[in-house]
Amino acid sequence: MPDNFSQAIAQSWTLPFAPTLAVIVAAVLYLRGWRLARATRPLELPPWRAVSFLSGLALFWLALASPLDALGGFLLTAHMTQHLILMSFAPPLIVLGAPTVPLLRGLPRAWVRDDLAPWMNTRAFHGLQEFFTHPAFAWIAMNAAFLGWHTPAAYELALRSPGWHEIEHACFFSTSILFWWFVLEPWPSRNPVSRWAVVPYLMGADLLNTGLSAFLAFGDRIVYPTYAAVPRLFGTTAMNDQIAAGAEMWVLGSIVFWIPLGLTVVQLLSPKRKRLMRMQQQTAAGRRPLPKPIDLLRLPVLGHLLRWRYGRTSLQVVSAAIMGITIWAGFRGSAMSSMNLAGAGVWNIIRPVGLVLILLTANFFCMACPFTLPRELARKLGIAKLRWPQWLRRKWIAAGLLILFFWAYEQFVLWDSPRATAILLLAYIGTALLVDSLFTGGNFCKYVCPVGQFNFAASMLAPAELGMRSKAVCDSCATSDCINGRSGGNQKQRGCELELYMPTKIGNMDCTLCMDCVKACPHDNIGLTLLSPARELGRDPQRSSLGRLSSRTDVAAVSLVLTLAAPINAAYMIGPISSRLGTLEAAHPFAGSNLGSLLFTFALSAVALGLSWLAAKLLQAFTRERLRTVFCRFALAVMPLGLAMWVGHLGFHLAMEMPSIPMVAQATYADLAPGAHGYNMALMGSMATMGSASKPANILLMGGAHGMSLLSLQVLVLDLGLLLALYAGWRTAKDIERSPASGRWLIGLYAVLAVAFYAACVWIFTQPMEMRGMGM
């Protein structure tokens, strides 16, 4: 039987007339034209372009003539392989060959001069060319063909009819040529839009590819009935074949999109490229200065509110009122977490929304933080007299408190305990009051507050930054009011209590956006500007109050704790990990005790940090820098991927909680309003089934199309994080490389480590997950 089967496969090779003839003619014309055009354009048409074009033609022919075409009727995996070749491998190789000029030069000269040239110079031809090669049309056409032909009705039609099957292949190949034409921009074409459009162009296509792949890989039924009826090959079932096809399309398809995406971003963010683009823009504009970045403090309404003397205090009062209601609800409200503001509100709503605000607007939460209101009272009473000890001027306390918080989150099931959440908030208030009542300055925010450290690290990717508008004005200033403060009339405006001197301040690290420096500056020389979100990645300047981050092991430890805690926190919720962790915890001598769980958490953290240190040791082999420098630099470089994991995971919480937000608000009102006990009980009855959603459930199976779209968005966020992490690693490697060769090995090793971390995060998102306290 195996010999007969192998013979049948070998005999499945065909010689399709039209595709074979087209490939031969195209190859002959291209080689002839490439040889003629290369005589005058050797730089534009190097040999690798001819190799690329011929390789694309060969893959195109193999997809149609090889046994893949015959096996496609029996195996979805084989059919998806054929589709990948026709859409993701052959077209970009052909486009990389820059086929326009060689194919035209390969035709007989008389044909081009007498027949083609007059038509190609008409307005109609140029209009059609602009329409079909426009990126909007190319993107819509390719993705419409991709999704349309993979609907069950169209797919089954192509399987039944050879004619429609050929039309399907023609649609895939032709639209993919147009799609990749915009991405690769083959000579001599020029794109009509900014090169930055390639980023959403490819990411959007990858999002659709991920959605369809996840639908096939995680579906609970056979999507294409033909594969359930045909004889099975290689001992695989129809469902396993579908899962393998979905995984193949997901992994290989995403790789094909992300390789050119990463290369494009690196090219666009390259300092040489940026200088060249700036020179071109200045030349085109008659050497006029480039537009200044947007300054939020100069906007009519928003700027006035941010600069208002009581602007921050107003935000703090509002957030303090919300926190007071939350604490009251934690002690007196419903014990059902999904109905309590201290449960669902804090962990599933406020936490993810706060993270998104940080990434968009820098430390907005710190600006509105209610925990610093006691500091204001202490300043009014003149209680704070002590200076923060020099030996504590590092972030080790905050790093330890972060690990302690992540342990407490699991140990005391904070997501399902409104009372424990209320106690945690009270402890936070007490700690802030104690520190700020004894010590001058903003020491609680800078050295103690774990939430603040999370915000500081995340805000390094935020586009908003508080900084000086004119260096010349700061150089001429003799009073340094931005840090020392100033007196005016009967009022004294303090300066920055976090000791960030504005002329040397870089980035958002340690900045709480309190606006004290803005109000203290007598020259109105401080602005809140919107800049590139990737500006701090791969840089190591001297920073006010912080020095160089390459020597700050404490800052690197905080960023690594946040990065590694993202997948660990999510992994606690998935079945394969939680069951094994439970078995492991029960096996150690302190099983069942808080001390044992605490020891386990710290041991896990030590192992994770140790592995990170080992990774830094491997990276150090390709540099001349010290191990500490390599550790600190690359710990910050990988942070975007950890933050992306947090956004994807917490965004999942928020998405699951969205339908129940009105009911949580009604339940909170019922808890607060006198005589509303009966109404509250009715709400509890209506949400009884929702509150029990802590059982393991697979959102992909439970949510259907909604679950698929959530997974696609989560993977898209991770893709963004990986892209930024790879860019940061590339910039870091170029900054500390020993030689170009060692730099390539350095970024290659870092890329392998980052992709492995990314793969682990994707795997976590695809696992069955507990719906902790989510009112679904």
TrEMBL record:
Assigned GO CC terms: plasma membrane
Residues passing through the membrane, by range: 12-31, 51-78, 84-104, 136-155, 167-184, 196-218, 249-269, 315-333, 353-374, 395-414, 420-439, 555-575, 595-619, 631-652, 711-733, 745-766
Pfam families: Caa3_CtaG
An annotated Gene Ontology molecular function: metal ion binding
Major location category of this protein: membrane
InterPro entries attached to this UniProt entry: 4Fe4S_Fe-S-bd, 4Fe4S_Fe_S_CS, Caa3_assmbl_CtaG-rel, NosR_regulator
Membrane disposition: Multi-pass membrane protein
Record keywords: Cell membrane, Iron, Iron-sulfur, Membrane, Metal-binding, Transmembrane, Transmembrane helix
Keyword Membrane belongs to the record: yes
Keyword Transmembrane helix recorded: yes
Superkingdom of origin: Bacteria
Localization, UniProt: Cell membrane
4Fe-4S ferredoxin-type domain mapped to chain residues: 502-531
Designated name of the protein: 4Fe-4S ferredoxin-type domain-containing protein
